[in-house]
Amino acid sequence: MAKMEPVVLVDIEDRVATVTLNRPEARNALNRKLTHALWDAIAAAGDDPGVDAVVLTGTDPAFCAGVDLKEVSGEAPPSAAPRAPGAGPERGGDGLFRFLPVIAKPVIGAVNGVAVTGGLEVALQCTFLVASERARFADTHARLGVMPGGGATVLLARSIGLQRAVEMSLTGNFLTAAEALRLGLVNHVVPHDELLPFTRRLAADIVGNDQYSVRRLLRHYRHLANAATLQEAHLIEGMLAETWRPGTSHVAARRAGITARGRAQARS
User: Fold this and answer.
1) What's the rounded Cα separation, in Å, for the pair 70 and 246?
2) Residues in contact with 23: Cβ distance below 8 Å, sequence separation at least 6, in sequence order
3) Which domain holds residue 62?
């Protein structure tokens, strides 16, 4: 009997964990087994003292085609047993269904193909996104006759603006990688073969920084998302600066390396 491939692959190198959705025959559609494995992999990376950043991608040809409709509709049996509250993907007290647990480390989405509906929501729950030239993005909830709950409307509107998000949701039309870059959904578009090397280099840039600062800044940006006014946002930042413990950032010890790295990047 052939050995079953794991539905999520994890590779850790140079303090970067690369997590890969691995149901290529189903375009990495999210059945219960995959959502549990994805949750566990991200949570484990968050807890691992040997990991400072995470890259999330999919086995070609897709990033994630959304929730597995065969399992949802009952055409296919459940791929795993339900989990108890708090033990896996679920709707939090804020109403958002989290596919990814919130961890103290950045999760960079490396979108290698289609990211559709639930797959788009997985991408939107990442810290930021890098796209292959082959990437495509769509919210097809209205085509299917279901409603979103994993952030498709809220996080998408925050990324590309309300009116563009409304258009995507009501039409179900796809964005190309270039359009996603123009609208601000992704930070970079690169040739397909360069997607993981490029994204891992960004992760390495993060790893090379003071990790106390990286994690505090990440928490700060999450806090800012709930600021009601510009004045409140400035106040939050001011409190961050004033309450940051002296010496935590190890400025003196890191100064020479920071200067050398900045000069090298400026020259290039």
Assistant:
1) 55
2) 7, 29, 31, 34, 59
3) 8-207
